[in-house]
Amino acid sequence: MKPINTARLTLRPFSILDASFLIKLMNAPNWLQYIGNRNIRSLAEATHYISEKLIRSYRENRFGLLLVTISATNTPIGMCGLVKREGLYYPDLGFAILPEFENKGFTSEAVEAVMKFAFQDLQLEAVQGITTPDNLASIRLLEKAGMTYKINTKLPDSEKEFMLFSTK
């Protein structure tokens, strides 16, 4: 996958060199509250996650979660991209940002770039998104991305109920 550039951001594939940032992101309070604990606490665990989940997705699906950086400073601030998720028919739009970068329009800018990539480059028929009912910021972002609420659903191997949004 090639990097995606916006006015302020660069979205690029993760590499194992990003392991320490991934630990920070996946243990941020907003990640733990809304996405869940992935038990990624060491460089070895983060490196394994990057190689077995993220890099594998780029290879197998032509898409995946991308590292989001501020272009001017190359500062990593979050992730955004598409995930092939068991239990969903279309690719799932995923995003997360460090708390100190929230409410600055970065996530919205990244989401817009990923949606453009999904439809223009990948020629996808539709994109879906899931979130918990209490995650109002994610609900607003999914709606801003052109998705509408469809149903509440549970994914395989999860007891949690999610709101399912879709562009189709």
Can you give keywords for this protein?
alpha+beta; globular; 168 residues; Aminopeptidase; single chain; 5-stranded antiparallel beta sheet; 3-stranded antiparallel beta sheet
Question: Layout of SSEs?
Answer:
Elements: E1 4-5, E2 9-13, H1 19-26, H2 29-34, H3 43-61, E3 65-70, E4 75-83, E5 92-97, H4 106-121, E6 128-131, H5 136-144, E7 148-154, E8 161-166
Helix pairs in contact: 1-3
Brief write-up:
The protein has five helices and eight strands, in the order ββαααβββαβαββ. The protein is of the alpha+beta class and 168 residues long. The chain has one domain (4-125): Aminopeptidase, CATH 3.40.630.30.
Textual characterization of the structure:
It is a single chain. The protein has helices spanning 19-26, 29-34, 43-61, 106-121, 136-144, and strands at 4-5, 9-13, 65-70, 75-83, 92-97, 128-131, 148-154, 161-166. The protein is an alpha+beta fold and 168 residues long. It has one domain (4-125): Aminopeptidase (3-Layer(aba) Sandwich), CATH 3.40.630. The strands form two sheets. A five-stranded antiparallel beta sheet has the order 1-2-3-4-5. Strands 6-8-7 form a three-stranded antiparallel beta sheet, covered by helices on one side. Helix 1 (19-26) crosses helix 3 (43-61). The longest helix has 19 residues, at 43-61. The radius of gyration is 15 Å and the shape is globular. The model has no long low-confidence stretch (mean pLDDT 96).
